[in-house]
Amino acid sequence: MPALQNHPGMTPRANTGVALSALYRYIPALDSLRSYRFSHFRADFIAGLTVATVAVPQAMAYALVAGVPAEFGLYTAIVMTAVGAIFDSSRQLINGPTNAISIAVLSAVAIIPPEDRLQAAILLAFLVGLLQVGITLAKLGDLTRYISHSVIVGFTLGASLLLVLDQLKNLLGLQSMGHVHDFFLARFWATMTQGGSPHWPTVETGFGSIALVVGLRWLKTRVGLKLLPDLLITVAIMAAVSALLGLETQGVRVVGKIPAKLPSPALPNLDTPYLRQLSSSAMAIATLGLLEAISMAKAIAAHTRQKIDFNQQCLSEGLANLSGSFFRCIPGSGSLTRSFINQQAGAVTQWSGVVSAFAVATIVLAFAPYAKFIPQASMAGILMISSWYMVDWKRLIYHVRASRFDAVVVGVTALAAIGISIEFCVLVGVFMSCMLAVPRAGKMLFTEFIVCSDGIIRERLGGEPPNPQILIFGFEGEMFFGAAAALEGHFETIESRIGPDTKVLVLRLKRVRNPDAVGMHLLDEHIHRIPGHPRPTGGRAIRPGGRPCAHRYCWPASPQAHLPRAAGPSHQHPDGRAVRLRAHRCLHGARQQPGAVLHDLTPAFHVL
Description:
By secondary structure, the chain is an alpha+beta fold. It is 57% helix and 8% strand. It contains 21 helices and eleven strands. It has helices at 12-26, 28-32, 38-65, 70-87, 99-109, 117-137, 149-172, 184-194, 200-223, 230-245, 275-304, 310-325, 336-344, 351-367, 376-390, 393-402, 404-419, 422-441, 484-497, 517-529, 576-589, and strands at 95-96, 333-334, 445-451, 457-459, 470-478, 504-513, 540-542, 548-551, 554-556, 596-600, 606-607. The protein is elongated, with a radius of gyration of 32 Å.
């Protein structure tokens, strides 16, 4: 990092200040300590404990969704939450296992034999973290802004439906059927038709859990207990009922034994034949994780008025996944539910996430032996409730009604999630966002101007006669390869307007931005297609930084007469009056022969 390098001529104290500034920038949690007070600690401590009561049941459930034992979800809720909080740009965002990412992980590892799925999920966390850190180093975090939010809405809808369908077998007590290489819908149909009859004690347990969660949430709303840990209470009650009634002996499947220990460091297995197979899924999950985290960070910032550094947020996600892979964690991202609860509980800084991680670790050490009584049907019921709340129904309706394109993006992304795979639906959504963004960015506005009798240059209105001697056209937009088709059409229009009476052609490029080689080549070709015009002579314009990006031409038809090659300070940044005077000068000097061309430069250019 350049900011950490010693600079010649700087005192040791100044170098220390530069190093501390960089440290505070890349580790925002340390920056928050500079103004940390006891009241902040108290608020963060209460918020962290509140988040932990939700994180424990969610982490176990999301691990089961991903197809790995429940304890690895708890490990993720410890390591990834702590690391993510330290590097988070958002002060209230909580990282860890999430519903959407776990579904994507399940889709990625579904075709891998069951005995290798755990190692594949850990390797996936390593690849996801590596890609996200790479995106940060390339400073591509801001590019997530150009992916339509309709992708997230469609993905969330598809993921929630996929989760409900996937958990039906656990809710009804059916055997999972189908081959690992089959599509999800094929496996689902095989399970529903060949998985046996519903196991009624399991069904009663699952629907009883759903009823208990719904009842507790009604009580929270009625009494005003917003921070009541309804999920944790439900899991504790159903575990107690399972132990007292011996539900496992009646055929109700339980979560199983969870070791009362913290995650130990271990290198992910890179020597595996599944590395290439998981790479494409890792890219989709990395993109999805960044979109999920940044979207939630922006939503939180809208309430707290804090400034979010998108690149720093990408770094925190990448380091959290990368660190987690060395402690046997599964991929994760920013959690919508836990982040919302963290904010509602009054968290002030990122340290509430660290408190939550330590609280989850304490719960694992103290109560892990009792997790063996938790029925899987209860976890399935909790996941179905979570899937309903995962979808923002108002926003879904808004996106479907907003425009036809948004409705198509939402529908195609959701259908791809269910019909093909979760990671593929993300790539489809990103591709459709690009299809939307590039044509819009490639629009080049084209305006014709006229010189009034009082000498003012203004836009020519419909029905007004043009001046056949002086043609003035203005361009506005990004002059890059995406605008090539629009540029060619505009240049053809200009060429069709040039007649025998045309003496001066003025192209105003004042509002042209970021020209590239394709745009400049089209402009050059257009100049040389103008009848009777030799190759122009004149100065060269460069953008600050020294790279050639535009040419300025002004010449009469006679090759012996031309404007000065180099424009001094008085010719820089010409305004409308200067354009008018110079156009009339060209017109006066070219009365005997038609043809004078003037390119008006944008003020962002400097003329040599």
